[in-house]
Amino acid sequence: MIHMEDEKNKNLKHIIKNFKIDMMKYINHHHNACIKAFEENEKKNSMSCSINCHDTEENICSLILIAT
Predict the structure, then answer these.
(1) pLDDT at 34 (0 to 100)
(2) Highest taxon of the source (predicted)?
């Protein structure tokens, strides 16, 4: 009887250990996907800002030339 309980506890510990490993893999996978998406979004925002800033500088330069 005691041997059966020990075996059940051993199996339960094994199941819990595997569950923890699977959960960490799942979390890491989605964490990495989120980081990648965030970085790609930051690149897009940075490129968009660069384009907008460049256009703004050209417009300001044009206004200065027209005013002078």
Answers:
(1) 82
(2) Eukaryota
